Amino acid sequence: MAMPAGRTEWTVDMLDALPDDGQRSELIDGEVFVTPSPSDRHQLVVLALGHRLWPYLRPSNVGRVLVSPADVRRGDRQRNRVQPDVFAVRLRDGKLPPYPFELSDLLLAVEVESPTDPAYDYQTKRELYLGNGVPEYWILSSAARTVARWRGVADAGELLTARLEWQPAGMAEPFVLDLREFFDDALG
């Protein structure tokens, strides 16, 4: 009689022991999620957004922007590790919290839409980020040149096609992104 195969509970140490195959592996509650290395379009959008968020946050004592690869964890730190494409970390007394960051340290999490597995960005990661206290989550689509945005677990979300505004607590002015200009610059 055949026995069903047992499910392996992965850990961060197990992921770190794997040979580098050029793919990105993330871990959520012991389950591994593997995505191919990002395309040039993906990276251009990531860098362009990070480049615009940096001067907005840098002069403040509110937060700092980072880009992947950089680890963010939650709860059981050995069974959870994700790497948002772009994210803003809340400062504590003017300093970054200890690395690797906790999901609760984030002011913003951003993913550039994955063409190979959009459900991972739109469902799995959205639920993870918002369900663990990240106040705002964006998904940028380089193909559609849009931003999907959620502000909390109960938010149904919105699709932005022209302009995005973000103003985390403590910032005097909002961050404003003209989406047409942004995507033209990033991908042009």
Structure description:
- With 188 residues, this protein is α+β, with helices and mostly antiparallel strands.
- The protein has a single domain (12-187), classed as tt1808, chain A (Alpha-Beta Complex).
- The chain is 25% helix and 28% strand.
- The protein contains 4 helices and 12 strands.
- The protein has helices at 12-17, 40-57, 118-131, 179-187, and strands at 24-28, 31-35, 63-67, 72-73, 86-90, 101-102, 106-112, 137-141, 146-150, 158-160, 163-166, 175-178.
- A 6-stranded mixed sheet has the order 3-5-7-8-9-10, sandwiched between helices.
- Strand 9 and strand 10 (158-160) form a beta hairpin.
- Helix 2 (40-57) packs across helix 4.
- The longest helix has 18 residues, at 40-57.
How much helical structure, as a percent, in the residues? 25-40%
Detail the poorly predicted runs: 1-5
**Which structural category do the helix and sheet elements fall into?**
alpha+beta
CATH architecture level-2 label: Alpha-Beta Complex
Proportion of beta-strand residues: 25-35%
In short, what is this structure?
The chain is of the alpha+beta class. 25% of the residues lie in helices and 28% in strands. A six-stranded mixed sheet has the order 3-5-7-8-9-10, with helices on both faces. It has a two-stranded antiparallel ribbon with strand order 1-2.
Task: List the topology elements.
Layout: H1 12-17, E1 24-28, E2 31-35, H2 40-57, E3 63-67, E4 72-73, E5 86-90, E6 101-102, E7 106-112, H3 118-131, E8 137-141, E9 146-150, E10 158-160, E11 163-166, E12 175-178, H4 179-187
Parallel strand pairs: 4-6, 7-8
Antiparallel strand pairs: 1-2, 3-5, 5-7, 8-9, 9-10, 11-12
Helix pairs in contact: 2-4
